[in-house]
Amino acid sequence: MKRNLLFPALIFLLVLTVAFSMTLGRYPLALSDIAGFFLFKIFGAGSMEFERYNLLGSLLLDIRMPRILAAILIGASLAVAGSAFQAMFVNPLVSPSLLGVLAGASFGAALGMVFFKSWVAVQVATFLFGFLAVLVSVGIARMHKGNTLLLLVLGGVISSALFTSLLSVIKYIADPYNQLPAITQWLMGGLSLVDGKILLTAGIPQAASIFLVCLFSGYLNALSMGDEEARALGISVEWIRMLLIFLATLMSALTVVLAGMIGWVGLIIPHITRMLVGPNNKVVIPASALIGAIYLIVVDDVSRMLFNVEIPIGITTSLIGIPFFAIILRKAKKGWN
Amino acid sequence: MFNKRRIRIITAIAVFLAVSVFGVDAAKALTVTDMAGRKVTVPDSIRKVYAPSPYGSYIMYSIDPSMLAGLNLPIRDEDMKYFPKAVRNLPLIGSIGGQGRTANIEVLLKAKPDLLIMWSASRSAINDKAEETLKKLNTPYVYAVAESLADYPDVYQFLGKVLKKEKRTKQLSSYSRKTLNEIKDVVSRIPAKKRPSVYYAEGVDGLSTECDDSIHVELLKLAGDTDVHRCHTSCHKGFEKVSMEQVMLYNPDVIIAQEKVFYDKVFKDPVWRNIKAVREGRVYLIPRHPFNWFDRPPSFMRILGLKWLTHILYPAEYRIDIIKEAREFYRLFLGVELSTQDMKKILYP
């Protein structure tokens, strides 16, 4: 695909997906209903009963819209964090969970659900422990001398394992009748708890981090050549790496705050993106944000539509992602050379 | 060096002791048939029992918590006031084969219960893995079997017989039986069309619920069978996710809410305002102290929960003073005397 056509095409596809998803839901709405509602709301055209107007407003603006926006934010965040990590660690198999952010955030969420009464406290705990887990990995890497990347990976392994076992402790002491099912459900991921307020609180830092990583994507190209070359280009490798890790952690931790654990997106989307656009991170980062957003909207549509009950989105992403990944694995090398 | 005479004396004493211990024991034991149809020899004087499953523990809380050798799940500090002092210092032992914390067998042995009270949802559901553990304990155990709330009167009678507390359990079983019949009677007189539809809102978002045939919503079955979520429950755990749009389609007349976080925001939430129950102010928070009245855990408290629910659904047809009824229930089942003020706090937190 030609470079100058790629972004307009992706943006068009995203708009199309959003528009199409607005029409999807368990509650049957005709396209004419939706069009009528927006015409009435924005231009005051046509007429509508008050009850009907309220119902449509709730369905479209309070239920479907926040979910779609959340899916965009989460999909883009996980994809960008994944792409940045893959470039930074020069390894196509790492994902945003590499440094333990998802394990830490899950532990924080479970801890909050067992010990705190308010949902805001749960969200704060989720966010803080996501960061704490990454700090632990970075701290472990800092303690030793040697290959920084390798030490970071090892630190991440240790930190993830630590917070995963702490999560098990929480699950064990949780009330098996009430808290445990709620924790289990949350860890499977889902967009049902998203509302306008949290969307703003989490969305603004997420969008800002995505934008900043796009700005720094040139440095990622240098980092992916290895530390020596990057230093030779006059880049302060350590500093840039820490900044990028910070941004990736911020956006990933916020995805857990918004919707619990959603795996596989941050691993697969960067691969697909590189297959489409090649290895240049200046293109990969923004393109993966768009593709991740489109992908997660579609996955959430499947979650919402398939049955009377909602399928947790974490399950859907893995079930769609794993076979897909197995198929493209052969081609996945392409984007690296 | 022992001489022969001394050995003889010691042997004689030993034999005498053995005979007296075992002989007495054998003479002072009785055989009962438990609810799973097993013949069990139980000691005649039972001082301490242990119930290694939450359901069994709850039933014991209502019969006589001071007989318990230990707790199965920790009791919240704020709920301790509903228990006799004896319960406060009991060790936390845990469960065998099932949910929550796994029992430490050695702690259990140290607590020396004379009898274990097992619980099963049906004869066929008796858990082999737990059986293996139980056999190692050398402690007699009996099964109480309750497939539904309707079996509670029988469970009370059976346990009363085993624990020699028939006078106490007779009160509990007749109260339970009376309540079940009373509600059946009230509900049967109300035509199906006049029964309000109910949505059971679980989770902080209120978007988890149960299929109508799940044990978790047994009270809804008994109080008119109008759960909006009609499906076959696939697992005991339940807690099925539904979407807001689905709830809007169901548009229930009444919502029974499990979480205070949800209850506090539901009336202000513009989306939930689309639901008939919310618009008409018919959202009710389930009382939960010391145990939930409705579900999670589904315990004996549901006998009172059934009255509460029926009163909510059919205020005109089932006129009761719920505060008075609840105080009476707490007096009878938990042995605590609560003021009207205290009860209001439980009912309307």
Structural topology:
The complex is a heterodimer of chains A (about 325) and B (about 350).
Chain A: H1 3-22, H2 31-43, H3 50-88, H4 101-115, H5 119-143, H6 148-173, H7 179-187, H8 196-215, H9 217-223, H10 227-232, H11 237-259, H12 265-277, H13 281-305, H14 313-328
Chain B: H1 4-27, E1 29-33, E2 39-43, E3 49-50, H2 54-63, H3 85-88, H4 105-111, E4 115-120, H5 128-136, E5 141-145, H6 152-163, H7 166-188, E6 198-201, E7 208-209, H8 218-222, E8 240-241, H9 244-250, E9 254-257, H10 260-266, H11 276-279, E10 283-285, H12 302-313, H13 322-334, H14 340-347
Parallel strand pairs in B: 3-4, 4-5, 6-9, 9-10
Antiparallel strand pairs in B: 1-2, 7-8
Helix pairs in contact in B: 6-7, 7-12, 12-13, 13-14
Describe the overall structure.
The complex is a heterodimer of chains A (337) and B (349). Helices cover 76% and strands 0% of the residues of chain A. With 337 residues, chain A is an all-alpha fold. In chain A, helix 3 packs across helix 12 (265-277), helix 5 runs antiparallel to helix 6 and helix 8 (196-215) runs antiparallel to helix 11. With 349 residues, chain B is an alpha/beta fold. Chain B has a three-stranded parallel beta sheet. The chains are: A mainly alpha (337), B alpha/beta (349). The A-B interface holds A 25-27, 54-55, 58-59, 62-63, 117-119, 172-173, 175-178, 180-182, 185, 190, 192-193, 304, 308-312 and B 54, 73, 99-101, 202-205, 207-208, 229, 231, 237-246, 248-249, 258, 260-261, 270-271, 273-274, 292, 296-297. Chain A: It is found in: Cell membrane. Chain A: GO terms for molecular function: transmembrane transporter activity.
